[in-house]
Design goal:
Helix content of chain B: 55-70%
Order of helices and strands of chain A: HHEHHHHHHHHEHHEEHHH
CATH architecture of one domain in chain A: Up-down Bundle
Number of helices of chain A: 15
Structural class of chain B: mainly alpha
Largest interface: A-B, 33 and 28 residues
Radius of gyration of chain B: 36 Å
CATH class of one domain in chain A: Mainly Alpha
Radius of gyration of chain A: 24 Å
Oligomer: heterodimer
Helix content of chain A: 55-70%
Shape of chain A: globular
Structural class of chain A: mainly alpha
Largest sheet of chain A: 2 strands, antiparallel
Shape of chain B: flat
CATH superfamily of one domain in chain A: Cytochrome Bc1 Complex, Chain C
Number of strands of chain A: 4
Chain lengths: ~375, ~425
């Protein structure tokens, strides 16, 4: 017996009603339809949050696919990634998108944070939104740091050695922290298993919590309007659904196109398998978003007033990070000095990053 | 005047070192460090002939081990008067004659029991080796122009061989030999060429040793020996080269050339590779022409000539196939393709080429052909991997363009939809 044309909508409506009765989707749909996005000169920056969320979703999806083939041991990690790149159908695409996507994700999160800072979107009552956002930035960097080691290649191995040495500079608990991070006194297979666990379980769990709170707070407080726009009066708005979302989707498609082009023309390199017994090759450096820190620590003198220079550097960077995390609590009067300080920090970090990318002296 | 100065220096020394009867030099128990009267006087005199050796001796390995001048020169180190210090009755010999130097050094360096006190691992056969050398034989005949211990090691300020300041240290030995062996007038006396160093500088050994810094590559003493330095005899050339090039020497010994070379007194490896100007061998050695080695004895139409040509064809084919495979894999790698396993496989073809080149020294075309054919199969397989990787690269790029087309269509559709949406509206009043 087949359904007649007039019977079909009836069944669909009944199914919808059946679902609504159990899940209460209409409340969510109502919430989404009510959501408005302000229109002003800086509206474009609102898309960065959605872009970061989209890229995070790409990372989760490609990461899950990579998990199906990746083997987290020093004996098999490199070979399993090699297998993914050479033998698994479209494995090269998934891995390259995951690697390029990670960089794009961190970059977009940085831009999101910078735009939120300069648009002063952390003004009351959005302090907690900023703090959870800062935590998400740190988690994104943690994803990058832990994921970098997973292919177990030479560059990643030695960069991780340098990276896990940094916490050892913290007075008192530094060495213990470094040992905990490495799972021993040196970077070994134990570090790889540990980083794998951090990358696929601990960080995703923490991200789920902070992202959940962050998104809830964004919905709770709505989009912040910059003080300069707010003063003359409330700006016009557009509906989130579908007006804003459709524009968001244009950006996501551009991101997909960019990731696909990078994967096809510049597949992420695998390098040479890590060998702890060979000397560190020249040009060891961490991911680009840690370069400014890496370079700053290089310039520090061995001792400053009897205190090891690197210890001071690590403490200073820790202080900077702590201020960033609790910025809404310290910038209560929205003084311009914070803007000046942020511009100086950004210029300094950019200069340090460029310097670290220059070839060392004596290189032809 | 000189005597007064010596006396003054002697007095000074007596106040610091104390005067007493001259101790009999003992190798096992060198004289105490205080017995350095000779040095004090010789330094105080500031004489261009005798002061520099006294200065140099301060840094000499023998001085650091507690030896003093009297161990080689005799005399009385404690004497404050020149005549007493230089008393022939007290064994003073002054500057030893070159002819006596090997015996003088050998007094200690040939004494195993004595040397154990200083360096138990040091050889004690240098003197007996020296006597077998060209240098030693000429010296025994009274020719003092030849090298003896001091000519190479220096007389005062002698450093251990491993010390880079020593003239016989691994990086300096060739230049030290060349001081005499590059002297055309001196070499003419012995009917020896004076261009050996210049030729060695053109060799593959020099490139590896000096330009690449690999000290395992040979220098003069690696082939000629050091204390027993002499040219390798015609019959022992293969043995000498074989100390490093063991596989080549082994294959050469079982080759059909071994016996005829011996019968014709041909100097083994040197026949084709030269002795000092040993250049990197190429397949051209097997061809006719200026660089051809086989063709200097074998007519192209002879069995030997044909075998050489066949070996060359195999080696050239394998080298060419490896080159082509590597070029493809490199192109694929530059495009970001994962070809490390194919590259590893190709290294087996490199190994086969190396083995085939050693097989040339068996002088049997079939042996070269077997090895080269195995390598050729590996290289062809790697080349196919390279082709596949390049085809995959093209597939990816085509796939990308199709995907980009679809994405562009989707973006266009979204933009069209956005255009139909109403513009901004006044903020809802809360």
């Amino acid at each position: 017996m087949s359904l007649s044309a007039s019977e079909a909508p009836g069944k669909a409506a009944r199914f919808r009603s059946w679902v609504e009765e159990r899940l209460g989707w209409d409340d969510l749909a109502h919430l989404a339809q009510k959501k408005e996005v302000p229109i002003h000169h800086w509206t474009i920056f609102y898309y960065l949050g959605g872009m970061a969320l989209f890229l995070f979703t790409v990372q989760v999806a490609t990461g899950i696919l990579l998990l199906l083939y990746y083997r987290p041991s020093s004996a098999e990690a490199f070979e399993s990634v090699q297998y993914i790149m050479a033998d698994v159908p479209f494995g090269w695409l998934i891995r390259s998108i995951h690697s390029w996507g990670a960089n794009l994700f961190v970059g977009v999160v940085f831009l999101h944070m910078i735009s939120v800072f300069f648009l002063k979107a952390y003004r009351p009552p959005r302090e907690a939104t900023w703090i959870t956002g800062a935590m998400l930035l740190f988690l994104a960097m943690g994803f990058g740091f832990s994921g970098y080691l997973l292919p177990w290649n030479t560059l990643a191995y030695f960069a991780t050695k340098v990276g896990t040495d940094v916490p050892a500079q913290i007075p008192g608990i530094g060495h213990l922290l470094s040992r905990i991070l490495r799972g021993g006194s040196d970077v070994t297979g134990a570090t790889l298993s540990r980083f794998y666990g951090i990358h696929v379980a601990i960080l995703p769990a923490m991200t789920t919590v902070f992202l959940g709170i962050h998104l809830y707070l964004v919905q709770r407080h709505g989009m912040s309007v910059p003080p300069g726009v707010e003063r003359p009066g409330k700006p016009k708005t557009m509906r989130f659904l579908p007006d804003f979302l459709l524009r968001d989707m244009v950006g996501w498609l551009v991101a997909v196109a960019l990731l696909a082009a990078l994967a096809a023309f510049l597949p992420w390199e695998l390098g040479v398998k890590a060998d702890p017994f060979v000397p560190a090759p020249a040009g060891i450096r961490p991911e680009w978003y840690f370069l400014w820190m890496f370079q700053a620590l290089k310039y520090l003198p061995a001792k400053v007033a009897g205190i090891p220079g690197e210890t001071l550097g690590v403490l200073a960077i820790g202080g900077l990070v702590a201020v960033l995390a609790i910025l809404p609590l310290v910038d209560r009067k929205r003084s311009r000095i914070w803007n000046v300080a942020a511009v100086l920090v950004l210029i300094g970090a950019a200069i340090l990053t460029v310097l670290s990318l220059l070839p060392p002296k004596g290189t032809p | 005047m000189k005597r007064r100065l010596l006396a003054a220096a002697g007095l000074l020394m007596a106040t610091t070192a104390g005067a007493g009867p001259a101790a009999t030099p003992s190798v096992a128990k060198p004289a105490p460090a205080a017995a350095i009267g000779c040095v004090d006087c010789h330094l105080a005199l500031d004489d261009a002939r005798i002061t520099p050796p006294a200065k140099a001796f301060a840094d000499d390995i023998h001085a650091k081990s507690g030896f003093t001048c009297v161990f080689c020169h005799g005399g009385d180190a404690d004497a404050t008067d020149q005549e007493v210090a230089h008393d022939r009755k007290k064994g003073f010999i002054g500057k030893p004659s070159p002819r006596d130097i090997p015996g003088l050094c050998g007094k200690c360096h040939s004494d195993a029991a004595a040397m154990k006190h200083f360096n138990p691992s040091l050889r004690v056969d240098q003197l007996s080796e020296y006597k077998t050398s060209g240098h030693g034989k000429h010296l025994a005949q009274g020719d003092t122009r030849v090298a003896q211990c001091a000519s190479c090691h220096g007389a005062h300020g002698i450093q251990p061989v491993k010390d880079s300041r020593s003239p016989v240290s691994p990086r300096k030995i060739a230049e030290t030999c060349n001081k005499c062996h590059g002297d055309a007038a001196l070499m003419a006396n012995y009917k020896l060429p004076a261009d050996v160093y210049a030729k060695w500088k053109k060799s593959v050994h020099y490139q590896v040793r000096v330009e690449k810094g690999d000290l395992s590559a040979p220098t003069c003493n690696s082939c000629h020996g050091n204390h027993g330095a002499a040219p390798p005899e015609v019959g022992s050339v293969a043995n000498v080269c074989g100390t490093c090039h063991a596989v080549f020497a082994e294959k050469f010994r079982v080759s059909p050339h071994w016996e005829p070379f011996k019968e014709m007194s041909l100097p083994g490896c040197v026949t084709c590779h030269e002795n000092h100007e040993i250049v990197r061998p190429t397949e051209a050695f097997l061809a006719e022409g200026d660089q051809g080695k086989c063709s200097s004895c074998h007519e192209p139409s002879s069995a030997g000539g044909k075998a050489a040509a066949a070996m060359r064809v195999d080696l050239v084919a394998l080298a060419g196939e490896i080159r082509a495979a590597r070029e493809k894999l490199d192109r694929a790698a530059e495009a970001g393709m994962e070809v490390s396993r194919a590259r590893f496989e190709l290294s087996k073809a490199d190994d086969a080429l190396t083995t085939a080149r050693t097989d040339v020294h068996r002088f049997q075309a079939a042996a070269v052909h077997t090895t080269a054919s195995a390598g050729l199969a590996v290289a062809r397989s790697a080349k196919k991997d390279g082709d596949r990787a390049l085809a995959e690269r093209d597939f990816r790029r085509k796939g990308l363009f199709v995907s980009l087309g679809l994405i562009l269509v989707a973006i266009a559709a979204l933009l069209l939809k956005i255009r139909t949406l109403p513009g901004g509206r006044e903020s809802p009043k809360s």
